[in-house]
Design brief:
5 helices, single chain, 4-stranded antiparallel β-sheet, elongated, alpha+beta
């Protein structure tokens, strides 16, 4: 059987400080550019002969503002292969950085980030590094991984895996993955659906007879 490869991209929702900073960047760049043009085009300034240079300066300001504005477009990609998870950080679809690779052997626990686990690990856990790769702190279905890694030491990761990712990781470390009550794995859901379909087909045949 070949390797099972699963992936998901999660876009980080902008926070209020980020929205405010983007607003400052946008209006700041526009105001500076407008001021430069007003001064240069004013006949009394004597700078009209250097207008091309100032136009290049305005273009550079706007380009820098654009790069800075879009640098807050953050995405995280989860890649799960045979129970091992890689998490990449993608900035404005331009640059990609590998945040961490966590094999099953390094995992201490993987569980829903519910009130019980949140309270325990927020108050009692000591971590050398924490990666929050969720959409926002208000997201539903946030999961927690605590791992003892070679690169960072004790690491905490918050992420939003798919059900298939959860199942794949549980297959490779069943004692380390805690499922919430009522959680149905995709394979179990598929078997239940097949059984229900078979039962319905059998009932239909009985009715025809």
């Amino acid at each position: 059987m070949g390797d099972l490869y699963l992936e998901k991209i999660v876009r980080r929702a902008p926070t209020i400080p980020v929205i405010l900073l983007r607003t400052v960047i946008l209006f700041g760049a526009a105001a500076i550019s407008w001021l430069i043009m007003v001064i240069v085009l004013n006949p009394e300034s004597g700078l009209a002969q250097f207008s091309q240079i100032f136009l290049l300066l305005v273009a550079a300001i706007l380009f820098f503002a654009y790069r800075l504005f879009t640098s807050f477009n953050i995405e995280h990609e989860y890649i799960v292969t045979n129970g091992e998870i890689d998490i990449d950080k993608i900035v404005s679809k331009r640059t990609r950085k590998r945040l961490c690779t966590i094999p099953p052997l390094e995992v201490e626990i993987m569980a829903p980030y519910d009130e019980e686990h949140k309270h325990y690990y927020d108050n009692n856990g000591e971590f050398a590094k924490t990666f929050d790769t969720t959409t926002s702190k208000y997201s539903k279905d946030i999961w927690l991984i605590v791992a003892n890694t070679k690169k960072y030491g004790r690491l905490r990761v918050l992420f939003e895996p798919t059900d298939r990712m959860i199942e794949n990781m549980r297959e490779h470390m069943p004692r380390k993955v805690e499922l919430p009550k009522g959680f149905v794995l995709p394979s179990e859901a598929a078997r239940i659906a097949e059984a229900e379909a078979a039962a319905k087909a059998a009932d239909d045949e009985d009715d025809d007879e």
